[in-house]
Amino acid sequence: MQISENGFIFSDKKELLKLDSIHRYLSLESYWAKNIPFETVQRSIEHSLCFGIYKDDLQVGFARWVTDRATFAWLCDVYIEAPYRGQGLSKKLMSFMIFHPDLQGLRRYQLATSDAHGLYEQFGFTSLQNPETHMGIVVPDVYQDLA
């Protein structure tokens, strides 16, 4: 799938992704994946449903869903490059992704965010119901330990 709007291209085509740009952002600018190795980013993209936003020859945004495309999808690694924020690109990207054919009819869509609750609430995300039933293993600073 691919659409163009206001000079931006929104696409789910992995061949358009600029791995160096994605790795740079995640490893240097994100709060959730500081120092993530390039190989880890590459492997995560290979096994996810990925989306990019492009302007001219630049990748200006990215997001990926970790999904079985049948019952569950986890949204992660969502970002818009700083010079392009405030133009509605996050909302357009969410609209493009949430209606993707491979993500229809799933039982659960999840994500974690420290600072974008307002964006995701516009698309139906809420705090977990019955959080006491959810469990996880969290390895804080895993990439810093590798550095």
TrEMBL record:
<protein>
    <submittedName>
        <fullName>N-acetyltransferase</fullName>
    </submittedName>
</protein>
<keyword id="KW-0808">Transferase</keyword>
<dbReference type="InterPro" id="IPR053144">
    <property type="entry name" value="Acetyltransferase_Butenolide"/>
</dbReference>
<dbReference type="InterPro" id="IPR016181">
    <property type="entry name" value="Acyl_CoA_acyltransferase"/>
</dbReference>
<dbReference type="Pfam" id="PF13508">
    <property type="entry name" value="Acetyltransf_7"/>
</dbReference>
<dbReference type="InterPro" id="IPR000182">
    <property type="entry name" value="GNAT_dom"/>
</dbReference>
<dbReference type="GO" id="GO:0016747">
    <property type="term" value="F:acyltransferase activity, transferring groups other than amino-acyl groups"/>
</dbReference>
<feature type="domain" description="N-acetyltransferase">
    <location>
        <begin position="8"/>
        <end position="140"/>
    </location>
</feature>
